[in-house]
Amino acid sequence: MRSLIVPFIGVALLATACGGGGASGPTQLGGVTPVTGVGVGTNFGFDLGLVSGNRYYFTDRNNASVDVFDTATSAQVGQIKGTGANAFAGVALTSTGSVDNSRSGPDGVNVVGNMLYAGDVNSVKVIDPATMQVVKTITVGTGGTRADEGCVDAVHGMYMISTPEAATPFATFINTATQQVVAQVTFTDPAGNPGGGLEQCRYDPGSDTFYVNNDGTTANPHGELNALPGAAIRAIPAGGTVNYTQLAGMRAYPEGNCDPTGLALGPGNDIAVNCREGTTGAPLLVQIMDRTNGNILASPNAGGGDQLEYDSATNRYYSAASRWTASGMASTGGGCSAASPCTPVLQIIDAATRTVALRLPSGNNAHSVAVDGATFKAFMPVSSGSSPGGCSTCTASDPAGLLTFSTK
């Protein structure tokens, strides 16, 4: 399918505002909000976040916690940490001392009824936000890798979470009423090879479909969007495991040279895919697709991000583009380094026109974003300016913490 590539022209970076409430138009509000346990010089390991009620939550591996902030003030109000078997894994290191994300946690986080579910190594942790306690651990694997990103079918009481770094990636489905594992789906492609990994998923209640970004298959080595019918998931015998290709009505849509990460359901039949291309010099894209047939409707030059969110209050997508570059093309190998630096931004895409509306400077490794339609704010954790390396718009004195942006 043919993509419409929008070149990197004509979209200016807005200057960062130093004050709060009087801002007109999307801009950064205030400075960096401190986060307990991190600061100047910290290589801050965090993953996804969300807004629920008047609280913003994000997963914090340095502190082995889910951090909690007030949406009105952006002030930190707590850190949720488990104990004993309910403790989060925290930051894991490789034998050479580098961070091993595949064995670190917590990772993704979702609202499930009146609870929060957070992915962790081999497990999902159930959190009671009222008491700010981890109340249960649901085991989903034994291989020592993380259960990463999840999504919720609130209609049928089903929660999906992926284990992307297993030898054969798989997704676990949990009954949210019983908090028990009811099925697993493996990802071996039609050629017999394990998938390249699994990224963000979304459930569409209108079509009763779980959508998930598959990092790569033999047919689509740079990613495909898999549509898993909810009815086919619920038809799996209790405790059973099936391969995704065996699910009745499963569809696979090519994503082009994408290397997908985030995923967001947009207006109408639109679904947006965040691409973080690993091909040096490739355009950094967001693929906006028709989720009924996989047609690529637009490919704005706004990729390089991880978490992607759609906000109906502003009818815009928000992408935490930590690997954006000044040229709008992927840096060497898609990463960030002193020799091939990144210029992290918050990408804002108009969902009506499927074009870039704004780019706001963010901060080092700012790959997570959550949007609050009630307060018209977006929240982004950020690492310190000096660590990890490769941010050309950062300074060594920039602390790790939380950034807040207005969205209108």
Largest sheet: 5 strands, mixed
Multimerization status: single chain
Uncertain segments of ≥5 residues (pLDDT<50)?
A: 1-22
What is the topology, as strand order, of the major beta sheet? Answer: 9-10-11-12-16
Write down the overall mean pLDDT: 94
Tell me the structural class.
mainly beta
Strand content: 35-45%
Count of DSSP-assigned helices: 1
What is the element string, with H for helices and E for strands? EEEEEEEEEEEEEEEHEEEEEEEEEEEEE
In total, the number of strands is 28
**From the alpha-carbon coordinates, what is the Rg to the nearest angstrom?**
20 Å
Intertermini distance: 34 Å
Helix content: under 10%
The outline comes out as globular
Question: Mind explaining what this structure looks like?
Answer:
Keywords: Signal. The N terminus is likely disordered. The longest helix has 5 residues. Helix content is 1%, strand content 38%. By secondary structure, it is mostly beta strands. The protein has a domain of 185 residues.
